[in-house]
């Protein structure tokens, strides 16, 4: 086990050796596959390098948040994959630790920790994405618990998940954010149907999930029935904190790759000057994002929530990442689409097209750019509130 003294130094050495073993089994290009991420989750767990800040009684190490942040940065710099249960680690586990009963913590935390029980997040619905408060999935009270009916969409990893943390309406005829509950639903229960959605990258990481009279026993609501909105908002704050760090490190790597691609590109001097100016603008944006993430993480390390800084970070990061990939594709031209076999003047790695297409989702997932702008406008600039969002 990595000792607490010299933790980061020892963790660095362990990570390098473990990643070499992982990559021997899963080549780099496939490091985002569920199999690789599952194996990585297991390896971290066996080395006691997961759940670093959790209480000891749930398998954690009670390390300070600042150490967790530094560990995440280290993992990102070494291009470690995300453990398979990263959604649960980022969003659900801190929420469970804060709002869960002892029985809920004992039941769910071990499977989150070792990755044996994968979770998905069931918030969005066909008519309800940005305006989460209009959730229509309903749970009817039954003598032994609840019966859930409804439909969720864009549910990442639902096809792999054993559990779903979902926002459902438990008070009939309630409106907006009142009457919602944060429910923990067994995806193996009778009446749960998962239908994959194919993305433009060709992969199918997202799903539509149908609940048809799904029985959910007592004890599967986090907090009190009707308190779901407050809990979901607290959970959202965790999503913008520590687990954002790897994305910023990844963006910095992608910027460096873009700068290298520009250096190699066979361009006329005037064309080069145009591209160079755009790349410099992106480098400046990445620097601002770095300052902002450092500030957010300082807040988190001192026990605060990211708040408005989290919204600004998400907005700047997602838009900049899109522009970095647009610029990369523009530099490569047709080679970006045709890949390494194109016979173009210089080869485009096969991953370029995937990342370019993937980056289109970043300004939608976890709150669209328009919604982040609304938040900044209202909370920072004092503009009038968007009535639909605050109904
Ligand atoms: C890659 C990916 C993974 C995802 N994973 C999950 C998941 O695991 N679980 C889950 O629950 N959801 C998930 N989502 C769904 C995601 O949370 C929603 O797509 C997002 O919240 C937007 O909702 P929507 O798609 O319904 O768009 P809508 O809310 O219908 O918005 C459509 C357009 O209108 C704009 N708009 C909406 N309201 C306003 C407003 N008030 N002011 C200004 N503009 C507005 C939006 O910005 C957008 O451009 C995922 C999405 C993506 C892309």
From TrEMBL:
Its cofactor is FAD. Residues 226-381 form the Acyl-CoA dehydrogenase/oxidase C-terminal domain. Residues 5-115 form the Acyl-CoA dehydrogenase/oxidase N-terminal domain. It comes from the Bacteria. Its EC number is 1.3.99.-. One of its GO terms (molecular function) is oxidoreductase activity, acting on the CH-CH group of donors. Belongs to the acyl-CoA dehydrogenase family. This is Acyl-CoA dehydrogenase FadE17. It comes from Achromobacter agilis.
């Amino acid at each position: 086990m990595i000792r607490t003294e010299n933790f980061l130094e020892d963790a660095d050495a362990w990570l390098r050796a473990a990643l070499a073993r992982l990559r021997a089994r899963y080549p780099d290009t496939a490091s985002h596959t569920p199999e690789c991420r599952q194996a990585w989750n297991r390896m971290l767990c066996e080395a006691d390098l997961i759940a670093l800040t959790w209480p000891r009684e749930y398998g954690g190490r009670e390390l300070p948040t600042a150490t967790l942040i530094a560990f995440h940065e280290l993992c990102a710099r070494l291009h470690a994959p995300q453990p398979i249960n990263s959604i649960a680690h980022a969003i659900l586990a801190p929420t469970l630790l804060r709002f869960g009963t002892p029985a809920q913590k004992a039941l769910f935390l071990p499977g989150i920790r070792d990755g044996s029980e994968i979770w998905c997040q069931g918030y969005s619905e066909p008519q309800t994405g940005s305006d989460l408060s209009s959730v229509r999935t309903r749970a009817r009270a039954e003598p032994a618990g609840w019966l859930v009916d409804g439909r969720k969409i864009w549910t990442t990893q639902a096809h792999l998940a054993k559990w779903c943390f979902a926002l459902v309406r438990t008070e009939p005829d309630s409106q907006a954010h009142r009457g919602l509950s944060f429910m923990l639903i067994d995806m193996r229960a009778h009446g749960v149907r998962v239908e994959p959605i194919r993305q433009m990258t060709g992969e199918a990481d997202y799903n539509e999930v149908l609940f048809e009279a799904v029985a959910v026993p007592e004890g599967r609501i986090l907090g009190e029935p009707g308190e779901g909105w407050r809990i979901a908002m607290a959970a959202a704050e965790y999503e913008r904190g520590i687990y954002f760090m790897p994305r910023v490190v990844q963006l910095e790597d992608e910027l460096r790759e873009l700068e290298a691609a520009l250096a190699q590109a066979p361009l006329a001097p005037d064309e080069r000057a145009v591209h160079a100016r755009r790349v410099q603008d992106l480098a400046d944006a990445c620097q601002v994002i770095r300052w902002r993430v450092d500030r957010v993480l300082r807040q988190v390390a001192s026990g605060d929530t990211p708040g408005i800084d989290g919204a600004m970070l998400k907005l700047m990061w997602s838009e900049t990442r899109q522009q970095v990939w647009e610029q990369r594709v523009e530099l490569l031209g047709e080679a970006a689409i045709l890949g390494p076999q194109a016979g173009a003047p210089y080869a485009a790695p096969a991953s370029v097209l995937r990342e370019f297409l993937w980056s289109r989702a970043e300004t939608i997932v976890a709150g669209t750019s328009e919604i982040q702008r609304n938040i900044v406008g209202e909370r920072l600039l004092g503009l009038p509130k968007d009535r639909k969002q605050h109904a």
